[in-house]
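Backbone-to-sequence.
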């Protein structure tokens, strides 16, 4: 319970923690940023670490001179790319081993082939959009690996997504983080960055399920 309380407090007040860390440890803050982003994007069991809010706060702290914006962006981009590559490799290596292919009752070859086809067709967009969605950005590269998405294709969209994600949100934090209104309501902004994308995902999944149910033909009556 204490760990959960600390994690929630860290997510909501990541600006204070990072500011204190910079004052106490200086350049080591870049190693901390690399670790947080790499773990959140690279380990499928760590989807709850801050992502969007962390990037925004980093940009804001760079705007007031606590960190170097080019260095922070460079570190975060590398961490985001390597994290997704690691997650993809884990999914690609362990996916078939967990399912044990046809010998396992947990494996559904038709579902696997559908996932593989989806990622080959639309996986690029999925990898990029997932960057801006908490939890989804952690699972998307893992699922891409399990579905055996083409490695070169995944790497290309992984790099593009990381660049858009880090540069976009850090830049927004750099220019907007110092505004009095933003500073006064930063905790609410962080909550919005967590829950709004989550609600979009839930709504999209609910609509997709309804459409799938509507497209499924019901039982026919024979005379």
């Amino acid at each position: 319970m204490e760990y959960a309380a600390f994690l929630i407090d860290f997510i909501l007040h990541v600006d204070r923690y990072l500011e204190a860390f910079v004052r106490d440890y200086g350049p080591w803050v870049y190693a901390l940023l690399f670790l947080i982003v790499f773990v959140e994007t690279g380990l499928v069991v760590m989807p709850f670490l801050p992502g969007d809010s962390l990037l925004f706060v980093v940009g804001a702290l760079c705007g007031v001179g606590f960190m170097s914006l080019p260095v922070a962006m460079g570190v975060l981009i590398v961490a985001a790319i390597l994290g997704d590559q690691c997650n993809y490799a884990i999914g690609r290596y362990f996916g078939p081993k967990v399912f044990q292919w046809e010998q396992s009752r947990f494996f559904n070859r038709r579902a696997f082939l559908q996932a593989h086809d989806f990622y080959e067709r639309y996986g690029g967009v999925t990898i990029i959009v997932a960057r801006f969605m908490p939890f989804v950005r952690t699972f998307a590269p893992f699922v891409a690996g399990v579905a055996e998405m083409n490695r070169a294709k995944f790497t290309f969209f992984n790099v593009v997504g990381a660049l858009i994600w880090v540069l976009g949100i850090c830049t927004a934090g750099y220019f907007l983080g110092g505004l009095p209104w933003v500073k006064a309501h930063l905790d609410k902004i962080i909550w919005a960055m967590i829950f709004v994308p989550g609600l979009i995902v839930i709504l999209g999944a609910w609509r997709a399920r309804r459409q799938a149910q509507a497209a499924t033909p019901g039982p026919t009556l024979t005379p």
